[in-house]
Write a structure and sequence with these properties.
With 310 residues, this protein is α+β, with helices and mostly antiparallel strands. The chain contains seven helices and 19 strands. The strands form five sheets. Strands 1, 2, 3, 4, 7, 10, 11, 12 and 13 form a nine-stranded mixed sheet that branches.
């Protein structure tokens, strides 16, 4: 049976867990080696890159990419999950037609732009002593969580219809940022409390919402045998690295992950790139098939294997 290798830009719909998406794709492609690149809450939607076959080797790389979200903050409400699906803990009046509240919101958006220490929510998949936080939360337990540094590169208002107590905004942030918690923190900063009322992930690295496909669209393409550009090649994730094709005499060394002493200077977009210490290179075998990423060892003047994609 054919093994598919590559990355699919999936549009995760509301009601699906990230695990549901992977399970569905395993059925569609009839292969087990599939993994996602970062959990999206069931009620959240948007971009979820999914890796197939040898592309699962880059799951960690994609998880580390910065992300862009469009979120809705509901002011005047606090819940145990930090979003509107949870149990309401506190409510207070909030109306953004009030100039003072609007100004406080804008100041909070500016305050949280940059790096700050964010305490992960109890309803999250992080583990404490081997147990996921959301499992403890469902048991009614609350445990101390260490704050983690996250970076919010920008928060900008989005002009679209929402409720009087709601504000839509776009967030560009680092990996590990919880938008639910950002909404909660902004509500605390403003003073009236807040929680997340909606979330769409619009970008993960180079993967954008406008190019994402829903599960039924992917299934239809596979059934029609029209996979075409559905699978994004793995080497595209290393497009900023110079490329090097090796002679047939070196294929065996490459397949075994041995160090390589490349005589030709690797190229990027047709331009030769002289090697420098720690430079990464995309390595293709003699048939032009992408096989690995190697890193240049300046002391020994050779390339050492970093990731293999056999």
């Amino acid at each position: 049976m054919e093994m598919y290798n590559g990355i699919i830009n999936v549009y995760k719909e509301k009601g699906f867990t990230s695990h549901d998406v992977v399970a569905k794709l395993r059925g569609i492609f009839k292969q087990k080696k599939i993994g996602h690149t970062g959990t999206l809450d069931p009620d959240a939607e948007g971009v979820l890159p999914v890796c197939l076959g040898n592309a699962t080797r880059v799951c960690d790389l994609l998880t580390d990419k910065d992300k862009v979200y469009e979120a809705v903050l509901r002011l005047g409400m606090e819940t145990d999950t930090q979003d509107t699906t949870g149990k309401i803990l506190k409510e207070s009046p909030a109306d953004l037609s009030d100039p003072q509240l609007r100004q406080a919101l804008e100041e909070a958006m500016e305050y949280f732009t940059g790096t700050y220490d964010q305490i992960p929510p109890m309803y999250s998949a992080l583990k404490v002593n081997g147990k996921k936080l959301y499992e403890l939360a469902r048991e009614g337990k609350t445990v101390e969580r260490k704050a983690r540094k996250v970076t919010v590169y920008s928060i900008t208002s989005v002009d679209r219809p929402v409720g009087n107590a709601e504000a839509a905004f776009q967030v560009h942030c680092s990996k590990g940022t919880y938008i639910r918690t950002l909404c909660y923190d902004m509500g605390q900063r403003i003073g009236c409390g807040g929680c997340m009322a909606g979330l769409v992930r619009t970008r993960v690295g180079v993967f954008r919402l406008e190019d994402a496909l829903r599960l039924d669209q992917i299934e239809a393409r596979v059934e029609a045998g029209a996979i075409g550009d559905l699978l994004i090649p793995v080497d595209r994730m290393f497009a900023d690295c110079p490329a090097q094709k090796i002679p047939e005499s070196m294929d065996k060394l490459l397949y075994n992950g041995n160090p390589l002493k490349l005589r030709r200077v690797p190229e990027l977009n047709g331009e030769p790139i002289p090697p420098v210490a720690d430079m990464r290179v995309r390595v293709y075998d003699s048939k032009g098939v992408f096989r690995a990423v190697y890193r240049f060892d300046g002391d020994k003047a050779l390339y050492k294997s970093e990731k293999m994609f056999l």
